[in-house]
Design brief:
By secondary structure, this protein is mainly alpha-helical. The protein has one domain. The protein is about 75% helix and about 0% strand.
Length: about 70
């Protein structure tokens, strides 16, 4: 158990910034979905489900690649 705690403690300086970036990207993506009406593919409900289920980096990245309509 002590070795596991040591490894977690060693990884924290890398995990904390990664978590901050992940939540910032998720927040911006949700804001964008909720404030825009037009999407290249799908609709608002579809993209909310994709982003929330794929909450890590995959959901927001999929939205910006395939859902966000360029103005």
């Amino acid at each position: 158990m002590e070795k596991i705690m040591e490894k977690i403690t060693e990884l924290l300086p890398f995990l904390i910034p990664l978590a901050i970036v992940e939540f910032a990207l998720l927040g911006y993506t949700l804001y964008h979905i909720l404030t825009h009406r037009n999407y290249k593919r799908g609709n608002r409900t579809l993209w909310l489900v994709v982003v929330i289920i794929g909450m890590e980096f995959i959901g927001p990245i999929l939205y910006f690649l395939f859902g966000k309509e360029d103005i």
